[in-house]
Design brief:
about 110 residues, MetI-like fold
Length: about 110
């Protein structure tokens, strides 16, 4: 997604192809790829209940089994809390990286 003129400009400044990739193209591509990649990770975590601390059965399913056996909603609340403890910091990290990238593109110092 980096415009070819970026590499041509680097080559015009006397950089070798490798140097142009290393110092110009890859850093720009890296900044563009990280936020969507982390968003995908958060989506994966939400969609597949990545947190499986109770063995083979995923956390939410295990909480449902425990609730059905004892009519106690504490396992479901614990599962929800674990889910939030993982999801909220990841979301904030992605937002912070996106804001940092946005500021860098706009020429901000932050």
């Amino acid at each position: 997604s980096i415009h070819p003129s970026q590499e041509r400009a680097a080559r015009a400044l006397g950089l070798t192809r490798f140097q142009a990739l290393r110092y110009v193209v890859v850093p720009q591509a890296f900044r563009r790829v990280i936020p969507p990649l982390l968003n995908d990770f958060i989506g994966l975590q939400k969609d597949t209940a990545l947190v499986s601390i109770l063995g083979v059965v995923e956390t939410f399913k295990q909480a449902q089994i425990l609730k059905a056996a004892s009519f106690n909603f504490t396992p479901l609340m614990t599962t929800a809390l674990i889910f939030l403890i993982i999801t909220i910091p990841m979301t904030r990290l992605v937002d912070r990286l996106a804001a940092k990238d946005r500021n860098a593109q706009l020429g901000g110092t932050r």
